[in-house]
Amino acid sequence: METNFTKPQRQSPIGIVVMFFDTLQQYARALFPLIAIWIFKFDEINKGWLALGTLVVFAGIAVIAWLRYRNFTFFLDHQNEEFVITEGIFNKTKTTIQLGKIQQVNVKQSLLQRIIGVHALEVDTAGSQDNEVSIKAIGHHLALELKSRLLENERILPNYSESDQNEFAVPDEQPFLSIGILSLLKVGITSNYLRSFGLLLAFFVTVYDYAIRLSNNGIFNEDELINYFDANFMMQFIGILLVILFLVIITINVVRIVVKYFNYQISKQSGSLLLSFGLFNTKSTIIKPEKVQVVSVTQNFFQKKLDILELKIKQASSGEKEERKQAIDIPGCNNLEHNEILKLLFGEIPEKGVMLKPNFRKLGFAVFLSIVLPLCVYYLVAFNVELRFLDFQYLALVYSVFAGLILYFSFRNNRLFINDRFIIKQSGAWDIENEIIEPKRIQAITTSQLFWHKSLNIGSVTLHTAGGNVAFQLGNFEKIKHYANLWLYEMETSDSNWM
To answer: Which of 35, 213, 307, 461 holds its CA 20 to 30 A away from the CA of 277?
Structure first.
């Protein structure tokens, strides 16, 4: 039986428990200095007053939690096509959201909510810094029904055939894509190499700094320690330590991926995509294809051999922080599943069209900033401040080779592909990323050219979307201006409902 959302609804009564712990967490942060004093002065505090004070605080939090539950109501105003929420403790606040402006609805479940059998529902709209509405505790069936009602999509979807329209109109309970443990393991093993390298570097810098401090304090003599151990033994020890540390980092990364994306499933529901995943903290979200701003497809060499890749769907956000937070990751799908998702989002599989390449000066400038300038600073400091720095010249050579390879492959993979319906920006050195945009999603276009680039006919373009900016630098400026004018025309004449 369908729930009548036209009448004000309250959360689940058991949700008072969630409200209590949520309020307790908020007040614990505010009262942290007082709590710290209680902990360190525990022996000097009167235990009776301490117990009474604690009891009063918990009683007050319980009253606040009950008032939050009692005063929180929500309902659907079909006449005005609005979702109305009333909340507050003493001063009540009424929030009204146009149904057409709702961009994303997430159903989440923390460990506590799973224990007591309730879910949280969060509603996002384009441009908001935080969730517009967060319902802390409702039943599973009610959450799914409300989520479906908030994101009902009865309009004709653009770029879809009549058969696709009918397929989208019928809810599909069976997921068409399920990402298993094996795929998640592959993602965990083959991703985040730069993060692992950074952790390794930070670890050894910290250990080296600590060893130098111990040596300076006279705890041990650095020269005696070096003479005590055989050189071959030290090399073997460092090699084994590197392997162990790398395996630990990979293991942590694999566990993080599996826990976060466990049982990842995607199904079609009323013209939208339903995604659900998570082991301890489960998350279920619905996205509308017409609200998608940018789709990013990332794959490296190992992932290509294993036939897996990672997708990221970006919707409207109010800044870089919100862009990362609201981006929806789909890890570990194969090429066939990837094509199916793109077809559901765009109505067809995006094809790469005309290719624009950056001028070689982009590589030269990057080499100057990333290699030449740091080496000049290094040798300037070494010769004028501390000659001992010259003992690490081999590290400068390693850095130059490593950075040079990254810059070269980044330049070689930097491309902009354009066809009638799509713009695809390709970038990356190891992880090759393809960002897919439809011109009708663009909010603004910025073209720029430095005066010394005019004779070379090179310039840059930045495409501003509600899901983030996509930039292409130092390409053929005549072609860039030509395509920019075409995109501006399509922006003006499009009736796309992406907001």
So the answer is: 307
